Description:
The structure is a homodimer. In chain A, α1 runs antiparallel to α3, α1 runs parallel beside α6 and α2 packs antiparallel against α6 (117-141). The first copy, chain A, has six helices and two strands. The first copy, chain A, has helices at residues 3-24, 41-61, 78-95, 98-102, 108-111, 117-141, and strands at 104-106, 114-116. By secondary structure, chain A is mainly α. Helices cover 62% and strands 4% of the residues of chain A. Chain A has one domain (3-141): Four Helix Bundle (Hemerythrin (Met), subunit A) (Up-down Bundle), CATH 1.20.120.450. Chain A binds chain B through residues 14, 34-35, 37-38, 111-113, 123, 126-127, 129-138, 140-141, 145, 150-151, 153, and chain B through 14, 34-35, 37-38, 111-113, 123, 126-127, 129-138, 140-141, 145, 150-151, 153.
Amino acid sequence: MSKAEQFLPNFLSHREVTKELASKIGEEDYNFKPTETSMSAKTLVTHMLHSFYNFATIVKTGNPSAMVRKLEDTETNLSELADKYTTLTIETIKSITDEELAREIDMTKFLGIKCTGRQLLRLALDHEINHKGNLFVYVRMLGHTDLPMFVKK
Amino acid sequence: MSKAEQFLPNFLSHREVTKELASKIGEEDYNFKPTETSMSAKTLVTHMLHSFYNFATIVKTGNPSAMVRKLEDTETNLSELADKYTTLTIETIKSITDEELAREIDMTKFLGIKCTGRQLLRLALDHEINHKGNLFVYVRMLGHTDLPMFVKK
């Protein structure tokens, strides 16, 4: 098993919670924002799904430009979108070789740092956990009180 | 340098953001909650500070009972509280030997898992990032729009 594949359970222990929270948001609430300057619920979830897939693609290809790749979706339902990008992200992570994971990537233009593929995958997960933390507040504000733990065992 | 000391910059890259967010919350807003069932701003920040210190103590001692340790504070200001627990947590992490970091700890009673000290420190950081993600929404709801990145470089 590659080192990147060993990272998969870690990714899924958080992504499964993201999916559960997303599934609680009714389509009538997709435009909900806690404040005027916040991302809407739909924009927030979409940003999380796109970002992890883009980060994983950068680790696979070594090319930082996927950071600003615009992904076009026909899915309008957040759970369907989450399923699609979770599958794409799993496939991409599975394809990352140990050499690609250890490769240094120059993310200066976008993040102000150079880092290895492994560090970038970790940053991708931290990014997901951060925004999932936002999402918990959104979902509670939408009236849900029966919420999962922040990480699945 | 011990392996636990190498973890310190990682801890501080998130804790510094926690401190910056906490400093934006005026004492008149300490009881603010986004919803009736949410933790108040003060309870949330205090929970983050106590939890990381407790997790680090468990890794140091190998004794999971610090998970439910009740910490008593005389500080009423969140920034002072954050400084106090950041110092205590740094000291504790610095004192963790490589053997303690590799030791398996039975967290079954509290978390349903057994894990190494290293894994528990990582969980402590994920816990901080998750609640910091909550805190970003709180602080934005309190009227702040000039917010830091979720992680300090």
